[in-house]
Please model this.
Amino acid sequence: MIQMQPHIRLTDVEMIFSRPDGEGENIHALGPVNLDLHHGEFFAVVGPSGCGKSTLLELMIGLTTPTRGNITFEGQPIRGSCPDGIGVVFQEDASFPWLTVRDNIAFGLRRMNLDRQEQESRIEKALTMMGLEDFHNVYPSQLSGGMRQRVCIARTLVTQPRLILLDEPFGALDQQTRLLMGDEVLSLWRKTGATIFLITHALDEAAMLADRIGVMSSRPGKLIDVITTNWPRDRDSKIVEQEEFGHITSRLWRSLRAESMKAIGKKHVAS
Amino acid sequence: MTKAGIIRIALIAMLLIGLESLVLMGRIDPLTMQAPHKMLFDLVSILQTGKFNKSIIKTLSNAGVAFLIALILGVIVGLVIHRLKRLREVLDPLFATYYAIPVFSFYPLLILLLGLGDAPQIFIAVMLGFVAVVVNTLNGIDRVPLVFLKTARVSSMGPFETAIKIILPSASPYILTGAKFAVAYSLIGVIGAEFIMSTGGMGYEISFAYNNFDNATMYPLIIIILFVSISINLMISRWEKALLVRRGLK
Amino acid sequence: MNFSTKRMFENMFWLILFVLIIWQILYWLVGDIALRSPWTTFQFTAKFTATDQFAIHLNESIKAFSLALMIATFAGLSIGLLLGLKQFAREIFEPFLIAIYSVPKITLYPILLLVFGLGLSAKVAFGAIHGVIPIALFTLNAVRNVKPILLKSARVMGLSTLETAYKIIIPSALPEIFSGLRIGFSLTLIGTLLGEMFASQRGLGFLLMNAIGLHNVDIIVMLTFLLVGFAGLAGLILLVINQKIYSAN
Model:
């Protein structure tokens, strides 16, 4: 079913931080940003470090309020708390070391008043979807980094979110594992039908996974380009072999190169 | 048993044997230090006659109560202070120099306020132990990864629930470190007060025995206290280690 | 004056104010029978510290404390350095140190009294046993935590053992060692004081114990005030030095 309303809409969103001791200029971290995410799409954001990608995510989960502009999710404004129906996977490992994998996942259901049977069935489904069935009684410290991120993803999945935000979830993993995790995220996306918003600094990851890719400028971050990939829905990592993949990554880098140099303080030399 | 463990036992054995021989040879005056074997016999006979059971129970139970109060109060205060950053900044130097304060000088004041019962001792013992718990709790809360707190907010957890479900479990190994200090300080507070004010309990009995050259009573009582404090400390350390192992940190 | 120094003085001001207010309130609640007001205490202190009697006891305490501190520092640093560098020795002895640290040392006082008798040596012993263990433990950890990569670089650069100790180990471990010294300072102070309370006829600790026995509230409050003030001041200075060392690292 095609929804006409965007799933989440950012209008003129800006984030300006004031300095803690009241001295010096304010920090214009983000914006203005205007963005519509469509229901069920896979949207990736790439940008140089410090451009405000993580701030953008925090705004979308209601952890911070924008200095200007507003954000609506499913038509309702987001105000200071994380709306129902949004799930997030952070960059750092958020698995609780004192709980087993199963209990970590069950934690996600805390907020919902489900009966015992429903809870158990959702936990089992999440364990299966993330390939953790054999590890349900194990503690996170006994798992690899990639497995721990899967636990965090599973914890989000049990709430059956309609929008899933991922903040560089595979940042700490090696390249090969990242590619495989990318396939898993795609399969997850298809199975759940959720809208996915992925922040990544890896261009190939964005190019391979997303329907649309937003390119952010250096601070203050603004969307300077949005590329549509036109990939089929049933794609996987094998599309890196296609010519189109190369075109997309080149286009991304062209937009991004100048911004990245600004971010590390170099002057842009036209080539 | 590790190699180091065996050597440790051997060293203790050598120390005891050395002590034993020095006393038996008359090199050490039995009025000063007893032979280890005699200490052991005296210990057994004291426990058998039960002559000091009341004192032992009094001291240990007062210390126990003080420990629990210091621990619970310390953790709660630690949680509260952590949220009030300015307050913490201001109190930091106080915490750093707290243990040089002669807490026993408050004893007379406390007796006047709380009467001659067990309350003043327990209060002093709590005063001693509670800051160690606060400092270690603050340290533990500092180390809670930011992403855990973000997860709590995203799950719409209020401050109370976050403290119980996330902050305390995460900080627990460090809180246990504080608990170990609280054990020692509770005993110091109670026994020291008993030394000063002679109101009964093991501190009083040890002091009395000392003044009467009664080593047969004094040494066993001291050994009991040492034994209790070392065992409890070891138990807490084991627990602490188990928590850290579960996190893959040791 | 930069921002953080200004802040530190502000904080100190609030802390001292806070303490004085609590003190005054307690005095109003309890009265002259158990406490003196801050102002009365200051006056009494000014008068009493000028007397000869006070000077004698003060000197006695200074003597005992300095000796205890020197012994605790020297012994603590040596033990800590040795155990920090030699892994096998550390494995054997560290649990002993930790066990002794966890014991309420006040329990050992009668034994120390029997061994040293009443007087200066007992007090110094009390003080030293309180301070030596934390200094040893902190030094041990500081030395053991020197990054292996630094020691490797020292070997590669051909430094001798002594040079490595001076140029790499000590500078690298200094911040943590100094933290241990700070704690050792406080604990040695209280240990010496307790020693004077139980084992001596002279010194500030003796004065305090005496005053408690005679219920001389003026002296009790004055001594507490002086000791807390001294500990606070010394502690603050050490804290500032500690922070400087940490930031230099």
In short: Residues 58 and 203 of chain C are 6 Å apart (CA to CA). Chain C has a mean pLDDT of 88.
